[in-house]
Design brief:
Keywords: Signal. By secondary structure, the protein is mostly beta strands. The protein has helices at residues 29-32, 120-132, 161-167, 172-175, 239-245, 264-268; strands at residues 13-14, 40-41, 50-57, 72-77, 79-85, 89-93, 95-97, 100-102, 138-143, 146-151, 154-159, 177-188, 191-196, 203-206, 210-213, 216-225, 231-236, 273-276, 281-286, 289-294, 299-303, 310-314.
Length: 315
């Protein structure tokens, strides 16, 4: 599963709208309610607005793991497209029209980007991905959730994150057991912010019928695992009851405005969505709250005072 990355995205985001009107009514009732025909050229931002996860780019395929904020994505908005393919964030100005992402005419300077060092291979891939959108690639919807862009011989395949989430949902048996809380994020129109939870000793316990914190039996929420991948609350404790009975949720000892460990109660009782990242990674989302969980041990990297020796230890 993708770890929450607290580096702020530096991205310009995408595009103007060009209306696409129906060609006319049909006398056949079945035809009048028929859905769109695919593949279809993208007519306007209306067709693609929002976030898409990278499936493949020029032969490279990122890990097919899911998270409310994918590590490799293209986010089309009114002003262009925000971009990341696993290392740095950037973007490209442009508009979506007439089956293309139309970059501005003439010479365009490279856009601002974050400057994390990720090794030559990943940094070179960043550069190719960011430059791809300056080549005015064609845009074609393969179906309602899958998008193809092409510039020259380079092909980019994108898919809606929600479609990938549903395709990769785990069985309850894959989730059952105890999970260590790794981080809690608040994601809304103002962006995202998060806190680490490595110091929280309690674990999140999931069974076929309950979701709870191991440190507080009163936190037990009765759940049903739904077909659309939610741990839907069907009884048991609500958020107010959990906070009233389980004050130890704040044992991590830090937070920020609107985001403290006590907000775990809102998530536990909020019928969270499941995002599966493999046997050791799971993310739960309820509203604007996102909780990253892991089964991996918590370790810290230590360094000697003279900076000559490093070692790991348990958190």
């Amino acid at each position: 599963m993708v770890r929450a990355n607290m580096v702020m995205a530096v991205a310009a985001l995408a595009a103007s709208l060009i209306a696409c009107s129906p060609s006319g009514a049909s006398s056949n009732p079945a035809a009048s309610v028929a859905g769109p025909q695919f593949p279809a050229a993208v007519a306007s931002l209306d067709d693609v607005e929002g976030t898409w996860q990278v499936v493949s780019f020029g032969g490279y395929e990122p890990a097919r793991v899911t998270h409310p904020q994918p590590a490799a994505f293209a986010n089309f908005t009114q002003s262009g497209v925000g971009l990341r393919i696993g290392c740095n964030w950037s973007g490209a100005p442009g508009t979506v029209r007439d089956g293309h992402f139309a970059a501005p005419a003439g010479e365009v300077d490279a856009q601002a980007q974050t400057a994390m060092g990720c090794g030559k291979e990943r940094e070179d891939r960043d550069s190719r991905y960011f430059a791809f959108f300056r080549e005015s690639p064609t845009m074609e919807l393969l179906n309602a959730d899958r998008l193809k862009l092409q510039a020259g011989n380079t092909v980019l395949i994108l898919q809606r994150p929600e479609a990938i989430r549903r395709e990769t949902l785990p069985d309850m048996a894959d989730m059952a057991g105890e999970w260590r809380a790794e981080g809690l994020m608040l994601i809304n129109e103002e962006g995202r912010r998060g806190i680490g939870l490595s110091e929280l000793q309690a674990r999140i316990a999931i069974t076929g019928g309950s979701l709870a914190m191991t440190s507080c039996p009163a936190s037990t929420v009765a759940i049903e695992y739904t077909a659309d991948g939610r741990l839907a609350r069907v009884g048991g404790a609500d958020a107010a009851q959990i906070n009233a009975q389980c004050g130890t949720f704040d044992e991590a000892g830090f937070g920020m405005p609107d985001l403290k460990p006590t907000r775990l109660a809102d998530l536990l009782a909020g019928s969270p969505k499941v995002y599966y990242g493999g046997p050791d990674r799971l993310t739960l989302q309820s509203g604007d709250l996102v909780l990253d969980l892991t089964r991996e041990p918590c370790t810290m990297l230590n360094q000697s005072d003279d900076h000559k020796r490093t070692w790991t230890s348990d958190c």
